[in-house]
Amino acid sequence: MTEVSVTKDAAPAADPLVVLDNVNKHFGALHVLQDIDLTIARGEVVVVIGPSGSGKSTLCRTINRLETIDSGSITIDGKPLPAEGRELARLRADVGMVFQSFNLFAHKTVLENVLLGQLKVRRTEKKLAEEKARALLDRVGVANQADKYPAQLSGGQQQRVAIARALAMDPKVMLFDEPTSALDPEMINEVLEVMQQLARDGMTMVVVTHEMGFARSAANRVVFMSDGRIVEEAQPDQFFSNPRSDRAKDFLSKILHH
Amino acid sequence: MFDFLDLEQYDLFGAFWVTVQLTLYSAVGSLVWGTILAGMRVSPVPLMRGFATTYINVMRNTPLTVIIVATSLGLYQTLGMTLGGGDSKEAGFRLAVLGFVAYTATFVCESLRSGINTVPVGQAEAARALGLGFTQVLTLIVLPQAFRSVVAPLANVLIALTKNTTVAAAIGVPEAALLMKEMIENESDAIFLVFAVFAFGFIVLTLPTGLLLGWVSKRVAVKR
Known about the structure:
Chain A: InterPro entries: AAA+_ATPase, ABC_ATPase_HisP-typ, ABC_transporter-like_ATP-bd, ABC_transporter-like_CS, MetN_ABC_transporter-like, P-loop_NTPase. Chain A: It is found in: Cell membrane. Chain A: It comes from Streptomyces lycii. Chain A: It holds the Pfam family ABC_tran. The complex is a heterodimer. By secondary structure, chain A is an alpha/beta fold. Chain A is built from nine helices and eleven strands. Chain A has a seven-stranded mixed sheet with strand order 1-11-10-4-9-8-7, sandwiched between helices. Chain A has a four-stranded antiparallel sheet with strand order 3-2-5-6, with helices on one face. The longest helix of chain A has 16 residues, at about 185-200. Chain A is globular. Chain B is an all-alpha fold. In chain B, about 75% of the residues lie in helices and about 0% in strands. Chain B is built from nine helices and no strands. The chains are: A alpha/beta, B mainly alpha.
C-alpha cells in the first residue's frame, strides 16, 4: 500500500461545528478509521466519497456516536460527545441522521414518524408539532402520503420522509449515510433534489455518497477516503478535474469513464 | 348417560369460572412482568440483565407444581403471607395467581425477546439518532413492533397457562381440576365421561383463544 499524505486545498473552517481530532477505530483486527482529522464548518456541505470498505459510513456514524471510537475526540458545537446516556440523547437530537435503509418506524404512519421526535424529545405541543410535520412533508413533496404506513411508499418517498423526520428536530447538522444507495435509479433524483435544496438553504451537511453529480454540484468540499484514511480533501471541481493522490485518480478513473 | 353430571351437586360452571379467573389474572400479570423481564434482558445495565437471566433460568426450569405448592406451604403457611387478607380460600387463589405469574412470565419474556430480535437494528438506531433514551426506544419503537410479531407464540403461552391452572388444585383452589378430582371419586363408574367433560371444557376455553389470536396476529403484523 502506498502511503499518501493528506492533501488539503479547502480553506480552513471559519466557524467549526463538527471537529474530529485524531480519531481511531478498530473492528477487531481491522483498523477502520485511522488518525482521522476533519473539521466541518457551520453551513458547510462536505461530501465523503471512496471505495467500499474505506470507512466512510463508519466515519459518518461516529459523529452521533452510533459507532463508538477507540481514541481521539469528536466535538459538536464546542461540546465533546458524551458517553451513552441522557446527555448523548440530547446531543443526538441536534444531529439529524438519514440512513441508507430509511429506517422509518414501520408501525407508525408517515405523519407519526415525523411527529415522534418533536413530541417525545422536544416536548413540542401536539398542534404545533403537527403543523410543522405537515409543512416539512409538503417541503419534501410527500404531504399527500401523511396517513400511509412506510411500507406503502416507494423507496424515494420513504427516504424523503426520513429527511423530513430528521429536519423536524431542527438539527444543527445533518448526516447522510449513503441516502440513495438503496434506491431504484429513477428515484435517486427526487431525493437528491431535496438534499440540494437543503444545501442551498445553508444546512450543515455531511454526505456519504456514490453520487458524483451531487458531490460536484452541492458540495463545498469533497473528502476522499481509502482504507480508513482521509487521503484527499479538496473543492469538488478541483478534486474531479485534477485529483492529486494516485488512489483518488485510480478511483475516479474507474467510476467516471465507461 | 350424563346422569352423573348433577349440576346441583357439582358446580361445574362455577369451577370453570374460577379457572377462567385464574387464567385472566395470571395472563395479565405474566404479560406485565414478562415485558419488564424482557426489558431487563436487553437493557444496557449488567445487573438487570444478570438478574433477569438468573430469574428466568430458575423459574423456567422449576416444575410448576413445586412453585404452586411453595406459594401455599412456604409463603402462606410458613411465612403467613395472605397477599391482602381474607380467608385461606381467597388467599389460596391469590397465591396461585402469584405462582402462575412468576412462572408464566418467563415464557412471555422469552417469546417477547425473540420478537425483539425480529425488529431490524435500524429501527432502534433511527430512534436513538432522534434523541430518544433507552426506555423510550424500547417502549415506543421496539416493543410495539416486537409484540406484533409474537402474538401467535403468546397465544401458545396463554393456552398452556389455561391448562396449567389445573395445578392450583394441588393447593385447594376450587377450579375445574379440583372438581374433577371430586367427581372421579364419587362417579367412578362414569370415569371416562368425567374426563371427557373436563377435556371438553378446556377445549371450549382454549380453541377460540387460539383462533382469535391467530386472526389478531395476522391483522397486527408489521408490514416492512
